[in-house]
Amino acid sequence: MEPIGLYIHVPFCVKKCPYCDFYSLPYREELADRYLNALLREMDFYEEQPADTLYLGGGTPVLLGEKRIKAVMDKARERFSFQGEGTIEANPGAVSLSSLTAFREAGLNRISFGLQSAVGEELTSLGRIHSAEQAAQAVAWAKRAGFSEISVDVMLGIKGQTSQSLGATLAFIGELSVPHVSAYLLKIEPGTPYAASHMERLVPSEDEAADLYLQAVEGLARQGLIQYEISNFARPGHESRHNLKYWECREYLGFGPAAHSYYRGKRFCHPRDLQGYLLDPVGDILVTDDAPGGFEETAMLALRLTKGVDFLTLCARFHKDPAPIFRAAAPLESAGLLTVREGKIALTPKGFLVSNAVIGRLVLQD
Questions:
Q1: Three-state secondary structure call for residue 362
Q2: Which residues are registered as beta bridge partners of 57?
């Protein structure tokens, strides 16, 4: 049996950022205790099987505290014989050397900090509760605590961001000397404060945001951080093994409100409802796809990776004719949006900027 991944959604934040559409609520001690009890009950619901990646996301997972996170890790080892890559997301303003040391001792070995920017005005606009100095301190503490796998998140195309300010953030990242960076273009989600305030009028234009993205790709490459997915960059051997499960269409279990799973040939999820989850953590599961993992889904997910897709092999697996795909690829290659090599198609950074359209032209032939 191939080991699965485990994703645990921790739906608590100190303060919700105005651009964020992830499910989270204000942290309360009493709710955290009840959430932990429900989470452990849900983990016990599934039969024992091996897992080799675990990802604590949110929300702000570090708010659970040292004892609760240790309890989660102990349950993962007990129920899923977990060993391998254990990741926790962290706000740089919500950690200390002692908490990071405790997380490392609990069995977590990878940490992802939400830096977003190293420029004070941009951090304020994003509603972040940390400064660049706090982020540098958090990374230093993580290294002292024994984390060698450290990632930072950066947002692109945000209000006030210019080539010069992004350059300052990239230089700051270089000084941190971390082996992984995630760089995301801002997407203004419906229902967020950003959408309500019409932030789309204040952020860089699409062309300007595209230039910032390409600047990030090139700047990170100069630091030895090579793009391996649309928004992810790493030194060789430091890619996120857990996230690769998503893009390689491999199975994982998601726990907690709003968490999604791909398990035993089905995709399913929990509603965005903490109270319902607390009452019955296994009774509110909704099946979203009872036949996932088909040709289109497999190809579309894999095309997010810079290594691309071997369409000759994939088409043979699904008994499809590859000729129309390569015909569709020819003009896209001429436009610099992808490369075709020995049956393998891979998007370029320029192609990633219009990935939905490119992938649709390749895969959605009918």
A1: helix
A2: 9
Question: d(Cα 321, Cα 328) in Å, to the nearest integer?
Answer: 13
Measured between alpha carbons, how far is 326 from 210 in angstroms, rounded to an integer?
26
Secondary structure letter of residue 135 according to DSSP: H
Percent helix, strand, coil in the chain, to 5, is 45, 20, 35
103 closest CA partner among 140, 61, 133, 134: 61
How many whole angstroms separate alpha carbon 228 and alpha carbon 181? Answer: 11
Looking at residue 122, its amino acid is: E
Instruction: Report all structural domains of the chain as residue ranges with CATH numbers, in order of start.
Output: 4-246 (3.20.20.70), 295-363 (1.10.10.920)
Contact 190, 234 (CB under 8 A): no
* Confidence (pLDDT) at 365: 65
Please count the residues of the chain.
Answer: 366
Q: Which two tokens stand for residue 41?
A: 């009950």
Q: Which residue has the tokens 């760089």?
A: 183
- Which residues fall within 8 angstroms of residue 33, CB to CB, at 6 or more apart? 68
| pLDDT value at 209 more than 70 | yes
Average pLDDT over residues 245-262: 97
CA dist 286 to 59, 159, 259, 312, Å?
Answer: 21, 37, 11, 35
